[in-house]
Write a structure and sequence with these properties.
Blueprint lengths: L6 H9 L24 E7 L5 H11 L2 E7 L2 H10 L7 E2 L6 H6 L19 H9 L11 E13 L24 E3 L1 H14 L7 H4 L4 H17 L4 E4 L3 H9 L5 E5 H9 L5 E4 L6 E9 L6 H11 L2 H11 L2 E2 L10 H10 L9 E2 L5 H16 L1
Parallel strand pairs: 1-2, 1-3, 5-6, 5-7, 9-11
Antiparallel strand pairs: 3-9, 4-7, 4-8, 4-9, 4-10
Length: 380
Amino acid sequence: MSKLILGPTRRSVAKAGLMLGAAALAAPLYVRRSLASSGELNWFTWEDYAPPALVNKFEADTGIKLKVTTFSTNEDQLNKLKAAGGSGWDLASPSVGWIAAHLEVGNLQPIDYGRLKNIGNMPKSFLDAVVELDAAPGGVNYCLPYDWGTEAMAFDSDVVKTEYGKLSFGDLWNPEYKGKMLARQRSLMLGTGLWMERTGELPEGTMRRAYANEADFDLGYGKAADYIIANKAQIVNWWRGTADTQSGFMQDGAVIGMTWDGPIMQMRDQGMKNMVYMSPVEGALQWMDTLALTKGAVNVEQAYAFMDWALMPENGGLMANETGYNSVVKGFEQHVSDNFRENFALAYPGDALDRLWLQGTERAWFLERRQALVDRISAA
C-alpha cells in the first residue's frame, strides 16, 4: 500500500491551478492536427463523460471519429476489460485508485508522457497523486489524470434545511428522511464509517487504514454494513450511475442522498435549483478519473491525439461545463460558465477544499471483501 495523500498535498490536488478565479497558467492553445487527422478511436468511459458537444468538437478539431461505449461503475469497467483480455477499446477511464487492480489482471499498457505536447498543462499535484496511489509502479505511467470530483451530500433544499458546517453524512440516517434516502452501497459504508469516526463509534483513522489493513477493514466497513442493514428502511433506492441518481430524486421520492457531484450539477443546470450538492463536515470523498491506454489498443496514435486534445484548457472547460465535473487542466477555469462557478462555490464553501478526503488504492483483496459486504447489504 502506498502512502496516502493527506494534509497539504491533498489540498494541492484540489487547488493547484484549479481554484475558480485563479490566474490562467495555460500554454498557448492549438490543435495539433498532425497527430492524427483521420481514423477512429474507441473510448470506454463513464456514461456522462462523452456529451455530444465534446464528441463533436474533438471530431471537428482532429478529424478522428470518436466511438463511445459507456459503463456505470469501476467494477463494470474492470470486469469487462478483463473478460476481453484488455481489448475491444483503445482508451479506458478508470479511477486512479483502481489502476493497480487493472494492472493485476493485465488490462493496460504504459503511456509515454513524452508524446503529449500539452503535458505541461497538467499540475504536478495530479501527477504526484498518480504515483502516491500506485498507478505508476516502477516509474512507469499507466494513466493520465482527466478530471476530478467528489461524492458528498445531495439534498432537496425545499425539504432538507441545513447549511455548510452542520451538514454531515450522519444526516442520511435522520429518521425524518425514512424511506427517502438515496445512496450506493459501497460509498454509504465509507460515509457512514467516517461519521462513526467523528462521533466516536469507531477509532479515528479506521476507514483510512482500511485500504491497507484487513483488520481495520473488517472493523470499519463491517460495523458500517451492520448499521446500514439494521436501518435499511431509510433507503428508497440504490444508484449505480448518473441516470439512477437523477431518477432517484425526480421519480422515486428521494430528498437526501450521498451522490457524485456531476449528476446534481446537471440537474441544477437544467433549472432544478432546489437541488443542492454540498460537502459534509467529514469531508467530501474525492476521486480522480483518468485516461488509460488498454493493453489491446489498436488506434494508438488516435488515443494519444485525444489525450493531448483533452489537455488543452478550452477543452477542459468544455468538459467541465458539459458534465459538472472538474478538469485537471491548468487554466480551464477561464472557460467555464457562470452556472459552473455558482455550483462549485455552493459545493465547496468555506474550508471544504481543505477537508477533501482522497480515496485510497483499492487492491484486489479490498475489492473482494467490500463486494462481499455490498452483496450482503443488497440481499438484506
